[in-house]
Amino acid sequence: MARIISVANQKGGVGKTTTTVNLGASLAYNGKKVLLIDTDAQGNATSGIGVKKSEVKKDIYDVLVNEYPIANVIKPTSREGLDIVPATIQLAGAEIELTPMMARESRLKSAIDEIKDQYDYILIDCPPSLGHLTINAFTASDSILIPVQCEYYALEGLSQLLNTVRLVQKHFNPELQIEGVLLTMFDARTNLGAEVVEEVRKYFRERVYDTIIPRNVRLSEAPSHGMAIIDYDPRSRGAEVYLALAKEVLMNE
Ligand code: ADP
Ligand code: MG
């Protein structure tokens, strides 16, 4: 049975999609069967792993809003063991369309239940908001991985995020846990980076991964080639750190 992890932070640009794609590929590299689910209308995980959005006929929108079978939407990727449920811009309408719907919080969970015995890990790339799509992701998940960018105000907004976690625990998913907090885009050349690391570790303690993701230009180039970093540049620092993160996640099993 798959372990289902939401990668979430309502701030944009903190490394959610980069982490979903590269952690997923690194887990697959370790022999795990992995499914990525893109729940952001930007579809960055979808294109970043090499699926052309123009060729996607049905996507996560059809699953959530029209109850289209998720198994029919899954696409393989060029990385062995790694599949994806794509998202396209039509998902932008889902926040509003879900509002009056029956069981609107548990639609993703119901869909995932149909296929979760086929995977070891299911990683959900969340949108930069705490709306219905993120609530669906949290309701469907065993745990949440929170990327935190090493910058000023790194902790800002996290109390809102943790509040949403508590609400979902209370109403929809009492088993929901924090998988871990991941420091991203660390820049060793500034003092700020080190200060943020200390601040985040003080707040989240042992829940912060030992692995810290540095700024690495190869990580930002890989998506435009439709590849995870381990395939785009396996010798890069970016590949090394996401493999290290996968090791930590595997140890949490
Ligand atoms: P989010 O999904 O939270 O919005 P992304 O993963 O899309 O964030 O990252 C935002 C931007 O920063 C993207 O252009 C991405 O390629 C880049 N990026 C993410 N992580 C790194 C990193 N460690 N080093 C360099 N660039 C990064
Ligand atoms: Mg994203």
TrEMBL record:
User: What chemistry does it catalyse, as a reaction equation?
Assistant: ATP + H2O = ADP + phosphate + H(+)
Question: The organism sits in which domain of life?
Answer: Bacteria
Q: What name does the UniProt record give this protein?
A: Sporulation initiation inhibitor protein Soj
Domain AAA, which positions?
3-178
Q: Which organism is it from?
A: Vagococcus humatus
One Pfam assignment: AAA_31
| Family to which this protein belongs | Belongs to the ParA family.
| Assembly, per entry | Dimerizes in the presence of ATP but not ADP; ATP-binding is required for double-stranded (ds)DNA-binding. Interacts with DnaA.
